[in-house]
């Protein structure tokens, strides 16, 4: 299986893959069906966005599916650098998964945090039901179909009723081999009134923009039962030779709450689809997304808010800076269905363009089918304010430092909305480094001492969001 | 399916040309009484009609009434129906016709380019200001009549012009199509405003292509009201081609029972220091659907562009629907663009306040809707504003159970 590309992935291959993983028959057939859907589906299903499909740099012919075993030294190096307590952390180094240590207390309470393959083998009936009506069906997106066909890793997290876990569950991926393909599928089950945080981190330590293209695909589904609260933080700082395909969706029952926080910083081409579905009364969602592109990076993100139940509330805020020749396109849709009376929704997409060859597109949409709602969206594209630069330079900063400070200030109102300090700090750090053209893995994991003092609580910047909205 | 539902549109059952049943009229007295009647119902006083410059009435595809005040003709202004312009001013016509909207542009522009008849042709010479609005009055009254008028407006350097087009149609049982093409060329320094209030009957498909070229320091303004029709798909657009050009689109849509107003605007910034503003207001009631579809494009090389887009939608009941699809494509690093949109319902407190001042619920509702549309109404000439407010009141009648 060393040099396997997508074109060689036949139904036969999928079947043998399922067999080697000792998967039940229904999953095998599900994979085959998904692969065929991948072949059939267009890159973009919604005719609203077909004009913007641009898969340049994504070569299906040569897309590698080969799982890569990490070397011993590589594992040691990564583990050493992360210096992490192994508790509650699943590591994925290349395509090899290292399971987390679960503290006895949590184990007793029935918390499951393991890799998805093990979980399916342990509870095949539960998963067969779940796969029948999963939130992200292979039918709805070409790349979701691909992941459903090929996933070999990912985590399964189940937190029982009423359990609150304060330490975050971490899923750390390190991808360093050229021309590899990793397909992870994650499933999160939050039972009634449970409360916890997930940190998903993706790094490369030595891939550069010149390396041979690799693929990282991840598909995450979060099911929130009554009153559950889940925070899902994510940092993508993969090397600039990795094409990233991400599909995430949450389905929230009564009074549940999901908070997504994402930093999209690495990758060559990143295609991200995120949707929060609020199915029952009182459910809420928040999605904060930071995009910082440099070089020739491209970001294609979608952030959807779907209100099905009444009295629901949804927020989605994306901020992007595109430098050099990088490009971003933000798409988003607030959909308020007929049954979702008394709902509130807000969608914002703000971008700053910093290079002659950079561009940023935004398409914030609304589809509203009932009237007792409040839905607003806003989008803007702006350049760096010359006066701000002049002011900072008059205080003795260089032009470059001034610009960097303005960028940090541009992101800060939303970075400080991220409820996971680890994610917020790391995003600030990576933005800082990236501005200076440094993609150093080790330093992106450390947070400088001044950070904590500087961004203390009470240091909040003025929140511009929703402030400008005036109903007439 | 992109846009509205066109599945019931039958091209084979459509009439592509109908000659007028009346002779060409010369004076006001010759205009058929029932057209005058419609004018009356819309509340345009006789005195004001005479004051207004040329009144051209399109009646079954051919212009039956067309008068142009003598002083306008003296200034060298050409205001005639497009068929006549083709015969009498072939050199200007050939130079500009089809240059802004070629037949390749879209299916309906192609259809219009093949079968067009009627429409207005205006040419304003350099430096000339047309101080009264020019008006044309369109009307469909044959069953299954497709109207394919073609309007071409050329404002030469530093000229000024305001053109108004309004239309109503009686109700027929089968669907008919109105597919116009409007081309505007605003030469350097020119100012053109194009005002439309569209009130086709609720069985008409209104699929219109409107586009303007604005050269250096020229200004083009589309003021576009959509009240009638079964389905309207209309996105007036402005290409800002020269430095300092300015574009403004003001769009209002009102969708009642069985109606879908799919409208919006497009601005393409192709030159530096160009500015634009799009304002869209829509109201949906009784299951009506409004859609805003807009494009803001800043091309490479268009430095220091400023643009604002604002869309507001009002839903009057729980059965209605509204969509917003704004496309922002920014390829320059010093562009400043903003987009804002909101959707909501009429505030109970607003209604309560007005009712406590002695208004009935219905009066209060129409007043709030009129207030919501005010940024549009205030840009209209007085008689059109009155017409629009009457139409809104008529639409709102019976909206309170």
Compact overview of the structure:
With 472 residues, chain A is α/β, with parallel strands linked by helices.
Q: Bin the helical content of chain B.
A: 10-25%
Q: How many strands, what sense, and barrel or not for the largest sheet of chain A?
A: 10 strands, mixed
Q: State the end-to-end CA separation of chain B.
A: 35 Å
Low-confidence stretches of chain A: 463-472
Strand content of chain B: 35-45%
Low-confidence stretches of chain B: 22-26, 47-65, 138-144, 169-173
Which structural class matches the secondary elements of chain B?
alpha/beta
Strand order of the largest sheet of chain A: 2-1-5-7-9-11-13-15-17-19
Report the principal-axis shape of chain A. globular
State the total count of DSSP E strands of chain B: 21
In terms of quaternary structure, what is this? heterodimer
Number of strands of chain A: 19
Largest sheet of chain B: 11 strands, mixed
Explain how this protein is built.
The complex is a heterodimer of chains A (472) and B (401). With 472 residues, chain A is an alpha/beta fold. Chain A has 2 domains: 6-280, no CATH class; 387-467, no CATH class. Chain A has helices at residues 11-20, 25-40, 72-82, 104-109, 116-122, 124-132, 142-150, 386-394, 399-415, 421-435, 441-445, 449-454; strands spanning 89-93, 96-98, 112-115, 155-159, 169-174, 181-190, 195-203, 214-224, 229-237, 242-252, 257-264, 269-278, 284-293, 298-307, 313-322, 327-336, 343-353, 359-368, 373-382. The radius of gyration of chain A is 22 Å and the shape is globular. Chain A starts with 10 loop residues before the first helix and ends in an 18-residue tail after the last helix. With 401 residues, chain B is of the alpha/beta class. Chain B has 2 domains: 11-346, no CATH class; 347-401, no CATH class. Chain B has helices at 33-41, 46-51, 70-74, 82-88, 90-96, 107-115, 348-356, 361-372, 374-377, 382-396, and strands spanning 55-59, 62-67, 78-81, 120-124, 134-139, 150-155, 160-168, 176-178, 181-186, 191-199, 204-214, 219-226, 231-234, 237-240, 246-255, 260-269, 275-284, 289-298, 306-315, 321-330, 336-344. Mean pLDDT of chain B is 82; it is low at 22-26, 47-65, 138-144 and 169-173. Classes of the chains: A alpha/beta (472), B alpha/beta (401).
């Amino acid at each position: 299986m060393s040099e396997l590309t997508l074109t060689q992935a036949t139904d036969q291959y999928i079947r043998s893959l399922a067999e080697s993983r000792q998967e039940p028959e229904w999953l095998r057939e599900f994979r085959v069906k998904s692969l065929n859907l991948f072949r059939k589906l267009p890159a973009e299903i919604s005719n609203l966005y077909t004009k913007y499909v641009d898969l340049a740099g994504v070569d299906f012919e040569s897309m590698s599916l080969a799982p890569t075993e990490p070397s011993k030294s590589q594992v040691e190096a990564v583990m050493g650098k992360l210096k992490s307590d192994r508790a509650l952390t699943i590591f994925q180094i290349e395509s090899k998964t290292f399971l987390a240590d679960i503290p006895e207390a949590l184990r007793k309470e029935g918390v499951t945090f393991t890799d998805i393959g093990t979980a399916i083998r342990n509870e095949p009936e539960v998963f067969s039901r779940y796969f029948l009506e999963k939130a992200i069906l292979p039918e709805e997106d070409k790349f979701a179909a691909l992941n459903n066909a090929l996933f070999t890793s990912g985590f399964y997290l189940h937190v029982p009723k009423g359990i609150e876990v304060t330490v975050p569950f971490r899923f750390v991926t390190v991808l360093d081999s050229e021309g590899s393909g990793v397909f992870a599928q994650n499933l999160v089950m939050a039972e009634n009134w449970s409360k916890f945080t997930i940190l998903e981190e993706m790094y490369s330590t030595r891939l550069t923009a010149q390396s041979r293209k690799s693929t990282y695909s991840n598909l995450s589904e979060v099911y929130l039962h009554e009153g559950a609260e889940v925070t899902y933080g994510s940092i993508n700082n993969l090397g600039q030779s990795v094409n990233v395909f991400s599909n995430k969706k949450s389905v929230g029952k009564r009074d549940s709450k999901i908070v997504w926080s994402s930093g999209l910083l690495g990758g060559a081409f990143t295609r991200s689809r995120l949707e929060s579905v609020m199915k029952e009364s009182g459910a809420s969602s928040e999605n904060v997304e930071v995009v910082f592109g440099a070089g020739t990076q491209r970001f294609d993100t979608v952030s959807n808010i779907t209100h099905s139940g009444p009295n629901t509330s949804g927020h989605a805020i994306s901020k992007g800076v595109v430098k050099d020749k990088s490009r971003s396109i933000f798409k988003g849709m607030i959909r308020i269905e007929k049954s979702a009376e008394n709902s509130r929704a807000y969608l914002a997409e703000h971008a700053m363009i910093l290079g002659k060859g950079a561009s940023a597109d935004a398409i914030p949409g609304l589809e509203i089918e009932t009237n007792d709602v409040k839905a607003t969206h806003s989008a803007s594209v702006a350049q760096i304010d010359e006066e701000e630069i002049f002011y900072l330079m008059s205080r003795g900063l260089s032009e470059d430092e001034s610009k960097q400070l303005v960028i940090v200030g541009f992101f800060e109102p939303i970075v400080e909305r991220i409820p996971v300090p680890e994610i917020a700090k790391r995003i600030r750090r990576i933005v800082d480094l990236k501005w200076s053209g440094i993609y150093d893995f080790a330093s992106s994991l450390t947070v400088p001492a001044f950070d904590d003092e500087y961004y203390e609580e009470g240091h909040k910047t003025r929140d511009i969001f929703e402030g400008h909205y005036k109903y007439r | 399916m992109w846009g509205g539902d066109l599945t019931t549109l039958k091209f084979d059952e459509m009439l592509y040309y109908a000659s007028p049943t009346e002779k060409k009229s010369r004076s006001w007295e010759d205009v058929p009484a029932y057209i005058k009647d419609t004018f009356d119902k819309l509340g345009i006083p006789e005195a004001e009609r005479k004051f207004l410059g040329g009144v051209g009435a399109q009646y079954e595809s051919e212009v039956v009434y067309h008068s142009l005040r003598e002083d306008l003709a003296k200034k060298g202004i050409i205001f005639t129906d497009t068929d006549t312009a083709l015969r009498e001013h072939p050199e200007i016509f050939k130079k500009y016709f089809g240059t802004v909207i070629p037949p390749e542009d879209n299916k309906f522009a192609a259809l219009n380019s093949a079968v067009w008849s009627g429409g207005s042709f205006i040419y304003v010479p350099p430096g000339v200001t047309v101080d009264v609005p020019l008006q044309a009055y369109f009307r469909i009254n044959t069953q299954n009549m497709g109207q394919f008028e073609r309007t071409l407006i050329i404002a030469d350097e530093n000229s000024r012009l305001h053109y108004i087009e309004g239309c109503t149609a009686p109700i027929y049982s089968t669907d008919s199509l109105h597919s116009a093409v409007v081309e505007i060329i605003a030469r350097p320094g020119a100012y053109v405003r194009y005002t439309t209030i569209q009130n086709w009957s609720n069985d008409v498909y209104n699929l219109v292509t409107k586009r303007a070229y604005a050269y250096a320091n020229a200004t083009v303004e589309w003021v576009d009201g959509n009240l009638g029709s079964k389905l309207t798909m209309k996105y007036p657009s402005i290409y800002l081609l020269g430095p300092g050009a300015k574009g403004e689109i003001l769009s209002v849509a009102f969708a009642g029972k069985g109606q879908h107003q799919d409208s919006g605007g497009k601005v393409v910034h192709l030159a530096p220091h160009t500015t634009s503003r799009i304002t869209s207001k829509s109201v949906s009631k009784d299951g009506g659907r409004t859609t805003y579809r807009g494009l803001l494009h800043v091309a490479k090389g268009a430095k220091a562009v400023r643009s604002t887009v604002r869309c507001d939608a009002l839903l009057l009941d729980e059965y209605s629907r509204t969509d917003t699809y704004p496309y922002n494509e920014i390829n320059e690093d010093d562009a400043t663009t903003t987009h804002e949109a909101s959707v909501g319902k009429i505030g109970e407190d607003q209604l309560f306040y007005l009712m406590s001042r002695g208004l009935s619920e219905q009066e209060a509702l129409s007043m709030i809707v009129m207030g919501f549309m005010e940024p549009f109404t205030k840009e209209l000439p007085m008689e059109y504003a009155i017409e629009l407010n009457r139409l809104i009141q008529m639409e709102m009648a019976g909206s309170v159970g």
